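User: Hi! I have a protein structure encoded as tokens and I'd like to know what sequence might fold into it. I'm fairly new to this, so please keep things simple.
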């Protein structure tokens, strides 16, 4: 196994592993550990080349630093990518990946991400303890989706308050695009709290099933942007906020769990120009990472700790909205400012402790 550093400005540590025996070719990026060890998922994709994989892992690791800083998980940001075809996974590959993760001595802690399942992580766990998000029965935090859903619903309250002066869901129409693990759970919670829930999904059968079971309004996925609502909640995929969609939105708030909702950062400014309050995705969808992060607290994972911390998404979004208003900037930029100020405070604490 050959592990080599890659020099990247602004990153604490980036390492590449090549292991001819298992076929492993992977990169781990540790962006920043000021606030704690870096935690971020492992993804596997058939990247065209190492350059593409490096671009992806660097972008994602930095994103994790910001997400954790705003969510106050006590963690830093990191990520790992396995370069290869997910159809060709093997036990040897994940044993080698486990050794690679272990070589960083806990500065990088891994979890699930695209094309990586719990069964893969269990193999990784057999050679390193720096793995989170395994099954609840093994003392780990289990499936993050219900916690992400809870955080989104709590965060939506801050957004409603901003747009309508009240955090109440009663009578508010919420359109959820993507009723999968997170969106489906959010729909249930919102219905229980008095919202009028409308749903759409590329999976029409799922929409039909949930609508008849819970009485949600079913909206055709290809026409969902024409549907008037108070909150549009993208919970399916990224890049749904772009030049084509933003002028068509008929809502006052955008707040959903999908990652990377903005096609480009400037689209947050476009939303602001239209008077639409946008909940930065990585702030409102942090419930899952907060839940996983609780595995690392002294005494191990306790759900009560996780729930209390997830509820802090509400005051965090309030802070983001306040910065946005005071400084006249998009909520996306405001969230970055909040993350950077927490990192600066963390750095100042470290320096003070050393001197
Ligand atoms: P999921 O796969 O369970 O559900 C996604 C749903 O969206 C499915 O029902 C799917 O049919 C639908 N969908 C996918 N592409 C679509 C499209 N182009 N148009 C319409 N519908 C489409 O996924 P999930 O775990 O619920 O996650 C949803 C989003 O939230 C993803 O972007 C994910 O990265 C993000 N996210 C999830 C978590 C978590 O804890 N699961 C945490 C943070 C962020």
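Assistant: Happy to help. Inverse folding works backwards from shape to sequence: for each of the 355 positions I chose a residue that suits the local structure. Here it is:
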């Amino acid at each position: 196994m050959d592990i080599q550093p890659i020099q990247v400005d602004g990153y604490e540590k980036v390492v590449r592993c090549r292991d001819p025996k298992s076929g492993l070719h992977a990169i781990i990026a540790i962006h920043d550990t000021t606030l704690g060890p870096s935690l971020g998922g492992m993804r596997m994709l058939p990247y065209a080349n190492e350059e593409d994989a490096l671009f992806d892992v660097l972008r994602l690791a930095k994103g994790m630093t910001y997400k954790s800083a705003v969510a106050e998980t006590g963690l830093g940001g990191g990520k790992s990518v396995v370069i290869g075809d997910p159809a060709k996974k093997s036990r040897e590959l994940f044993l080698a990946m486990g050794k690679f993760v272990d070589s960083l001595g806990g500065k990088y802690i891994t979890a699930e991400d695209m094309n990586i399942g719990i069964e893969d992580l269990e193999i990784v766990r057999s050679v390193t303890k720096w793995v989170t998000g395994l099954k609840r029965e093994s003392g780990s935090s289990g499936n993050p989706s219900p916690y992400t859903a809870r955080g989104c619903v709590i965060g939506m309250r801050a957004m409603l308050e901003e747009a309508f002066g009240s955090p109440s869901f009663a009578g508010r129409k919420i359109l959820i695009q993507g009723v999968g693990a997170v969106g489906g759970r959010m729909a249930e919670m919102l219905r229980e709290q008095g919202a009028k829930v409308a749903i759409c999904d590329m999976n029409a059968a799922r929409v039909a099933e949930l609508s008849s079971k819970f009485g949600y309004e079913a909206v055709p996925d290809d026409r969902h942007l024409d549907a008037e609502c108070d909150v549009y909640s993208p919970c399916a995929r990224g890049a749904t906020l772009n030049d084509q969609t933003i002028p068509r939105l008929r809502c006052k708030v955008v707040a959903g769990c999908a990652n990377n909702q903005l096609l480009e950062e400037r689209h947050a400014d476009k939303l602001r120009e239209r008077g639409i309050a946008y909940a930065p995705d990585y702030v409102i969808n942090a419930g899952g990472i907060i839940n996983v992060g609780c595995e690392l607290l002294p005494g191990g994972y306790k759900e009560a700790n996780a729930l209390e911390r997830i509820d802090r998404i509400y005051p965090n979004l309030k802070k983001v909205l306040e910065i946005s208003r005071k400084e006249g900037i998009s909520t996306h930029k405001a969230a970055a400012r909040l993350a950077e100020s927490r990192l600066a405070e963390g750095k100042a604490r470290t320096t003070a402790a050393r001197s």
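A useful reference point when you look it over: The CA atoms of residues 320 and 335 lie 5 Å apart. Feel free to ask if any position seems puzzling.
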